[in-house]
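Input record (one chain):
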Amino acid sequence: MFRNPDHRLLLVSVAASQVGLQIAYFSVSIIAVVVLDLGEAEIGVLNAMDQIALVLFGLLVGAWVDRMRRKPIIVVSEVLRAAVMLTVPLAWVLDALAMWQLYAVMFGLGLVSVFFDVAQGSYVPMLIDNDRLAGANSRIQGLRSASDTGGPLLAGPLVTLLTAPVAVAVAVAGFAVSAFSVWRIRFQEPDPVRRGKPHLRAEIAEGIRFLLKDPIVRTVAFSSAWCNLSVGAFQAMLVVFLIRDAGQPSAIVGVILAGSGAGGVLGAMLVGKASARFGMGRTALVALALSGPGMAVVAFSGPGWGAVVAFLGQALFVGAIVVFNVNVVSYRQAVTPDSIQGRVNATQRVVTWGTMALGSIAGGFVGQAIGAQSVLLIAAAMLFAGCLVLLKTPIRTLKELPEEGTGLVEVR
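The corresponding structure, as predicted from the sequence alone:
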């Protein structure tokens, strides 16, 4: 990927966008917990707002993306994400920063991100051939994870020095660099095939049928929905637990969250060799089994040097999830025709991210009733249970990606 100019620009875009997104999310979380002092239930709803946008509009966006070229959608989406985040420091300057404004920002960010994520997920398999797709996805995921480290590490000091509302403005630079990098890609994307008068309902149904037809894609979609229910609850209460229960300052919370990136980089480095030796499916299942215990380690961390324990638990949790995701996403992209990539990606996201929104809301209300730490432990148990369900499914037999146009293969 590093020898191809277009692939390099794609990697720059991934890194810049992810750093911007991490700074934005971290800063909004600190504003909610420290500046506005929101309750656990309110924070749970806040964390769900961007996922709610995906649930409401994801299927429609998938159909729209398949009618248009993906590159312009990616560029415009990054510009709009920058504009949405600029409203936070503006509201702070005008002394209008409030809970409802943060809800609107998160919903707007989520809505634009639906277009960005679906378009990017459909653009990558057009830009990169199947025989290099898994390797490319592992590098992209590794770069995202490295950015997940750099984002919180940069955000912590920025929030401390500049205050959280001003730190949000720094995220805008990341979105701008990402937009410029994708705009410079020279690959000539073919115009989508237009089949007469558009029928949104029929086009959406085509994406749903494809997802339900393939046994591995279908299995992963529904098991991921269960797992994301726990991930949503965990992420909603993580910053609350670290600041209010474990007593960690904002800068140290940024370091702990950087464990996500460290684990993700390690997972991206290991996934290729592990999958080649043990098979893509088995590697994915073992990785998913380790993610729940990683959550539990975070939940048992405390103040002071407990930050080290939390960092290691976060690294294990996210690193394992990265290994799982690289394999299952690569398989889905490889077997899905280019003409319906957008709709299949969108359908997958609606199914899995919809439950994440429910998990965030439920985690907030449960956290308000029994505490953030209890939510983290429940989430860890649920995530581990999700792995057990997959043991008797077709994914365990997946060994490698199919060749282009050959359809299913045995086992990832």
